[in-house]
Amino acid sequence: MAAEPFEVPEVKDQVGWRLSEQDKKDLRILMADRREKSPTALLRDVIHEEAEEARKRWLRATERFATKETGG
Question: Quick check: pTM over 0.85?
Answer without folding.
Answer: no
